[in-house]
Each structure stands twice: as structure tokens, then as C-alpha cells.
TrEMBL record:
<keyword id="KW-0811">Translocation</keyword>
<feature type="transmembrane region" description="Helical">
    <location>
        <begin position="106"/>
        <end position="125"/>
    </location>
</feature>
<keyword id="KW-1003">Cell membrane</keyword>
<feature type="transmembrane region" description="Helical">
    <location>
        <begin position="30"/>
        <end position="50"/>
    </location>
</feature>
<keyword id="KW-1133">Transmembrane helix</keyword>
<keyword id="KW-0813">Transport</keyword>
<dbReference type="InterPro" id="IPR002033">
    <property type="entry name" value="TatC"/>
</dbReference>
<keyword id="KW-0472">Membrane</keyword>
<feature type="transmembrane region" description="Helical">
    <location>
        <begin position="146"/>
        <end position="170"/>
    </location>
</feature>
<feature type="transmembrane region" description="Helical">
    <location>
        <begin position="190"/>
        <end position="216"/>
    </location>
</feature>
<feature type="transmembrane region" description="Helical">
    <location>
        <begin position="251"/>
        <end position="273"/>
    </location>
</feature>
<protein>
    <recommendedName>
        <fullName>Sec-independent protein translocase protein TatC</fullName>
    </recommendedName>
</protein>
<keyword id="KW-0653">Protein transport</keyword>
<keyword id="KW-0812">Transmembrane</keyword>
<comment type="similarity">
    <text>Belongs to the TatC family.</text>
</comment>
<dbReference type="Pfam" id="PF00902">
    <property type="entry name" value="TatC"/>
</dbReference>
<comment type="subunit">
    <text>Forms a complex with TatA.</text>
</comment>
Length: 294
């Protein structure tokens, strides 16, 4: 019966054997991963394209109307605290198209962006399938559930961006005027650009815990380093929140709070990664001492 050390060496040799592929073989494997990912994006994009009513009237143009869930919720919260300010600043602007093929182009491009968002969990899964064979068995075990957590954080970021960051930005920018005689008539492309930028920015910012997880696994980030530079990180987070949101203090605070919580969660994740790495190293040393070679 093989000893634990021999089993570990056999597993490591197996992982190295799986990784011993020619450059052409790697390209061929990558090509099929890309093809499958592209098919998924096309399928979801077509689903979005043929549901034009829901895609634009309900989803895309939702934050442009006063009956949007976010505005109604802030209005109710304002009533609870005896304030009517959130209800007074109603969304009031016109979205227009100035190009002959503008609406068709926006329909195609928006469907493609929605297709990528819907297919993101599968896209990351295909990427993970390509990278996974090159990892050692313990690295695979420690990274179990990566696809699930990356997908969950991405979806949470999308929801936060769509229901919080984007409506606050759209409401502020659409209602801002330098003179009462100037009417806001927003171009369709400008509106879509603001909405997608706000939403996707939050989606990728919410991936901070997973980014820290992989950096901690690589030994590039430690909890002490993140704690030491916490004040600097707060400044960077405030800058990011200011970029994502309009120059409105309340909106910046609302966006800053979850990012700060994600940073604190990332510090905890870095601690867990280091503790697990130390425990695994001690276990390997104990096995080697119990079964000395020669």
C-alpha cells in the first residue's frame, strides 16, 4: 500500500503529465473552449434580441422612468424618515435617436452585451476548464467552487449596479441643469453608455474578494499588507465611487459602503488562505518526517 508521501508524489506526477501537452495541443484545446464560449454568447444574445419589448422597455429603459423600483423604494424610505426630497426629484428627460440606423445598432450591441452578461458564468467555467489541468491536485482542491463564487459576485455586482449605481447616476445627470430654459434631451447612445458603464463597473468591482483570493494563493497579497494600506485603499475606493457615481455625496456613500465591506471581506479571505497554506505545509512536513526517504 502506498504511503501518503508516495500518493502525493503520484498525484503531482499525474498533474505534471496532464500539463505535458505540445503548444499546438494547447492551442487546439483553447480553440474549442473559445468556440463553445462564443456559441453560448450568441445563443443568449439571440434570446435577448428577440425579446425586444422586455429588453428595452422593461430592462434598459426602466431607470429612465419615475416608476422604477429604485426611485419608488427611495421615495418610501424618505417618507419613513419624514422627508419628501427623494420623491420630489422625479426623472424627467427625453431619450432620442439622431441616426438613421441608431436604434438597430443599439438593439444589436445591447443584445450582445446582455448575452455576455448572461453567459458570464459559462464563460468563466470554460476558462477554468482550460486552466484547471495545469494545476496541482492541492491547488485544484483549494480552488474548488471558484466558478460558483465568481459567478455569484458578478451577478451581485450587476444587480447593485443596475438597481443602485446606475439609477442614482441617471437621475442626477438627467435632472441637472445649468439654466431652466435648457431642456435635457438625451441621446440613446449616451444613455446606454451610462447605464452599461455603471452596471458593468460594479460587476467587476464586486470581484475583489476572488481577485484577492488568487493573489493570496500566489503569495502576492497578505492580510498584513492589506491592513497596513487600508487607509490608502479607502482613498482609492472613494475615488472609484466618485468615478462610478455622479458628484452627489449621498450616491457616493451608497456605492462606497459595499466596496469597503468587500475590502474587509478580502482581508479575511487572505487570512484564511494563509492559514490553510500554513496548515498544508505543516502536514506535508509531518508526512515527510514520518516517512524519511532512504
Amino acid at each position: 500500500m502506498a504511503s501518503p508521501t508516495q500518493k502525493f508524489q503520484q498525484n503531482r506526477a499525474l498533474a505534471e503529465g496532464e500539463a505535458e501537452m505540445s503548444f499546438i495541443d494547447h492551442l487546439e484545446a483553447l480553440r474549442w473552449h473559445i468556440i463553445r464560449a462564443a456559441i453560448a454568447v450568441v445563443v443568449f444574445s439571440l434570446v435577448a434580441f428577440f425579446n425586444k419589448q422586455f429588453l428595452f422597455h422593461d430592462l434598459i429603459l426602466g431607470p429612465s422612468r419615475s416608476d422604477f423600483w429604485t426611485y419608488q423604494t427611495f421615495c418610501k424610505i424618505g417618507h419613513l424618515f419624514g422627508s419628501t426630497d427623494p420623491c420630489e426629484n422625479q426623472v424627467n428627460f427625453i431619450i432620442q435617436n439622431r441616426e438613421m440606423s441608431g436604434q438597430l445598432t443599439m438593439h444589436i450591441s445591447t443584445s450582445f452585451i446582455v448575452g455576455i452578461c448572461l453567459a458570464f458564468p459559462y464563460l468563466f467555467w470554460e476558462l477554468w476548464r482550460f486552466v484547471k489541468p495545469g494545476l496541482y491536485p492541492h491547488e485544484r482542491a483549494n480552488s474548488r467552487g471558484a466558478v460558483l463564487f465568481v459567478s455569484i459576485l458578478f451577478i451581485l455586482g450587476l444587480l447593485f449596479g443596475y438597481y443602485i449605481a446606475a439609477p442614482l447616476s441617471i437621475n442626477f445627470l438627467a435632472s441637472y441643469t445649468v439654466d431652466a430654459t435648457i431642456q435635457n434631451q438625451i441621446d440613446l447612445q449616451s444613455y446606454l453608455s451610462t447605464l452599461t458603464t455603471m452596471t458593468l463597473s460594479c460587476a467587476f468591482v464586486f470581484e475583489l474578494p476572488m481577485i484577492v483570493f488568487f493573489l493570496a494563493k500566489a503569495g502576492l497579497v497578505t492580510p498584513e499588507l492589506m491592513t497596513l494600506y487600508r487607509k490608502h485603499a479607502i482613498v482609492v475606493i472613494l475615488i472609484i465611487a466618485a468615478i462610478i457615481t455622479p458628484p452627489d455625496i449621498s450616491a457616493q456613500i451608497i456605492v462606497t459602503i459595499p466596496i469597503l465591506l468587500l475590502y474587509e471581506l478580502s482581508i479575511h479571505i487572505a487570512r484564511v488562505v494563509r492559514r490553510n497554506s500554513a496548515a498544508r505545509l505543516n502536514q506535508e512536513l509531518a508526512v515527510q518526517n514520518a516517512n524519511p526517504v532512504g
